[in-house]
Design goal:
The chain is of the alpha+beta class. Helix content is about 30%, strand content about 25%. The protein has a 5-stranded mixed beta sheet with strand order 1-2-3-4-5.
Length: about 150
């Protein structure tokens, strides 16, 4: 079995769609995938033999506002420290890109908060932040769940 390598790059459309499906997050059409990939301010891929097996992305303006949009590790690689590799790459990006007063947020799946806390993320409410909210009037994922 070959090594898994981290590369700061955007994933391809088809492989992004396939990884979302492998995660059980449903599917998106190619145009939606292309737009969301292009609009990320940061992307880092985990690759094994050139195949996408993990991804972390942040969206935002790249200097003052950041939101983590994807943290995915292919099911066959979970538990191998690959999520940690992705979070370390994300944190390094935030440290070099974020300007004074910046806000970096994420909305972890329920129960995953302890994982992020290991990398310096803190739960809300705290400081000036509330608990976090989601806009409920959006279409559900097609063929998947986030639970």
């Amino acid at each position: 079995m070959s090594d898994v390598v981290l590369v700061e790059e955007r994933p391809g459309v088809a492989e992004y769609i396939a990884l979302r499906q492998a995660m059980g997050w449903g599917t998106v059409d190619e145009e939606t995938a292309r737009i969301t990939i292009e609009r990320a301010c940061f992307s880092a891929c985990l690759r094994r033999d050139g195949r996408l097996v993990g991804l972390v992305r942040a969206i935002g303006d790249g200097c003052l506002y950041f939101a983590v949009s994807d943290v995915m590790v292919s099911p066959e690689l979970r538990g191998g420290g690959h999520g940690a590799t992705l979070l370390k790459a994300l944190n390094a990006y935030l440290k070099r890109a974020a300007k004074p007063g910046a806000s970096a947020t994420l909305q972890p799946l329920a129960g995953r908060e302890p994982f992020y806390e290991k990398f310096g993320w803190v739960r809300c409410p705290g400081g000036p932040f509330g608990q976090g909210m989601v806009f409920a009037d959006v279409p559900p994922p097609v063929g998947g769940t986030f639970g």
